[in-house]
Amino acid sequence: MLVLRKCSFLILLCSFFSMAQNGTISGRIAFEDNNEPAFSVTVLVKNNSFKQQVVTSENGNYSFSNVPYGKYTLQISSIEAETKSIEISVSSSNTQINNTIKRAGTLELQDVSVVSKSTKKKIEERGFAVNVIETKNAELQSIQTNQLLDRTAGVRVRQAGGLGSNADYILNGLSGNSVKIFIDGVPIRNFGPSFSLNSIPPSLIQRVEIYKGVVPAHLSDDAMGGAINIVMKNSTATNLTASVSGGSFGTYLADINGSFRDEKTGFTVRGSGFFNYADNDYDVWGREVAVQLAPGTPDVYITAKRFHDRYRSQGGRAEVGYTNVKWADKLMIGALFSNMDKQIQNGATMEIVYGNRFTEQKTKMINLDYSKRNIVDKLDVSVFGSFSELNRKTVDTIATQYSWLGHPTNYFNNPDVWASGAEAGLPTLQEDIDKNINTRTNIRYRFTPNNSFQINHLLNTFSRTSDDPMLPPIENAMMEERKYMKNIIAFSYENSAFNNRLRTTLFAKSYLMNRSSTIRNRSGNNSNSTLILVTTDINSDDLGYGAAISFDVTKKLSIFGSAEKAIRLPESGELFGIVSENLNGQLLLRPEKSNNYNFGLALDNLTWKKHNFGFRGNVFIRDTKDLIMKFPVGNLEEFFSNTNVGKIYTEGFDLELNYNYNKEIFFTANTSIFDARDYEVTYDTNGNPVSPTYQRLANTPYSTMNYNLRTDHTDLFQKGSRFSFYYNLLYVHAFFRHSNTLGGFGKTVIPTQASNDTGFAYTFPNRKLTLSFDAKNIFNRQIFDNYALQKPGRGFYTKLTYTIL
């Protein structure tokens, strides 16, 4: 019935369109220097008897409908570009006019996050609590994407170590998989762990959109705590750029990025690749770095090097197809290949040390990406489909025990061995093959220039097969199966009123999930227990909804607010576990549910002489039930397991201040403080209380500050050159490792941390070669994240970036 209604609607629309000698004008506006889309540019079509005005979309597209046949003037204007007028003629049902505009001047950026104010403001106007990071300057530094995110208000990136370690993201109090990561609007889980924010260099990224709390419907996933959307460079201009960098702890990085487009046919080719390597042999010390110099003697605390933490990853992505042609804005077929191998230094905490355990992972993906504005009058369509396969192997077959001395324990005589036969349990060569099919469809219909309706659909299917030749043949022959299906449909309505000063978005989402598994289990706890296959099949059906609104009080002051009933479905790794990450499966996890509220204001472009100020503040509330959190389990805290935490109430705020003097000196300060407390006693998988009532949420930093100073100078050493210098301070207040009533002596509190980074970048006069130098954690302070896992100390890095074309 729904299909018949849609068909009837399209037939009626086409019939109405053909009744008069009217046509449509559509096309794309881009900047002539790099062919990037011109966002929020005003396009006016007029003659003596007709006049109509629209604004370009994020992709630079525009469209006019019901334009009588005849001759017109098409005028293009923007605060970022010189006004341009061209004469056109409308004599057919669909007239395609693509054009380029010249920038009015160099767009300066406000802070080290390199936020383009005009782009940022247009995205913020939709009413969501959002920050935008552009990488125009950061791509020249020897810096990872995660470090850029960690300097943003309301964001805390928590890594388990150095380059290549697992990372979690906290957005306004919610963390883990509650925060979804996207690449060009596609969930990052399809790209595999070797293609992650840890490995993608900023030079391949155009901008990062950080939505805190309520997430727009076009990111059609179950992002309950917020979303980070990585917008990759998709320039259709011919270009080729490469960079190499190296530094402390055996770190070497390289990347290359290029594209080509034939202007006559629209044929487009894009490609990028990266290589990352790090020994991660930095010093660690503290209460978890203790050794016995002889059997039976007391522990001695030492400073030790991480000796088994090498990380290596490489990957490439290529796309071929057509862009900005009459029948498609984009039709690209792509392929991605990446692989990673990593030694594993420790268990869930630093108390368990490994010397031989490691993992290897390979990912391959193929995808189809299509979009067309005005596929029929006022109807926009975009479709993305992909198939990916991740092959993950964990190798742990040697039982030798290691200590932080970097040698087997008791190595003066015979090495001690683990009774289980391997370092993390039974010997294993387990190989998991994870297959993902992902489709994302967005359909948008514009009733009028100020009203539109969208339907967004996400389908994700997951399956895993496992094989472990170290198991007894009879046991290994009992094949396990794990399957997962997520189906999310979102409906949204957008309206702008009062000359675009008031913008409103309403949305609703349907969440359907099915998960099934057949897993080996023993019928008892004794050695004579019978090995059986246990089947589990669970379905869930939930509904979420919300709204976002913003209003421009003046040209410089805007207020915004949003509210949402959000759902987050358990992820496949949380349900089925990941052996290489010491993560146990938990099949019975329930979906998270949260009522999220945001309210904020933004002051932009407050100018006094050569001084320019900006301010943004956001107050938030999260009322969450069944929050999924990861906790270490067992007496030795060697493994992780996920648990539903009963009822969490969070309230807090984040503030950001931007200042620049004469577009040469830039200062940014941001603060995020929240209070997250558990209002129900929660128990881990062993029945032990995890967090007693009214206590702060365990292992969650609740107060962070970041201060950044940057200076830009041109013609400083050579005419035509550019020199940038920055200094960054990150402060994290002390927080509880478990809770304020649990945990042993010296392990309860993770202390206050302060990290200082500095560096410079120098671009030579030809603007093709840039040299940068970065010094990180210059005072060599202890920096911790998850469960006192120490991050690298003082390090120095250099980078060369060369624009070939």
TrEMBL record:
InterPro entries: Beta-barrel_TonB (IPR000531), Beta-barrel_TonB_sf (IPR036942), Carb-bd-like_fold (IPR013784), Plug_dom (IPR012910), Plug_dom_sf (IPR037066), TonB-dep_rcpt-like (IPR039426). Residues 312-778 form the TonB-dependent receptor-like beta-barrel domain. Residues 128-227 form the TonB-dependent receptor plug domain. It comes from the Bacteria. The keyword Transmembrane applies. Its main location: membrane. It is a multi-pass membrane protein. Residues 1-20 form the signal peptide. It holds the Pfam family CarbopepD_reg_2. This is Outer membrane receptor protein involved in Fe transport. It comes from Flavobacterium arsenatis. The lineage of its organism: Bacteria, Pseudomonadati, Bacteroidota, Flavobacteriia, Flavobacteriales.
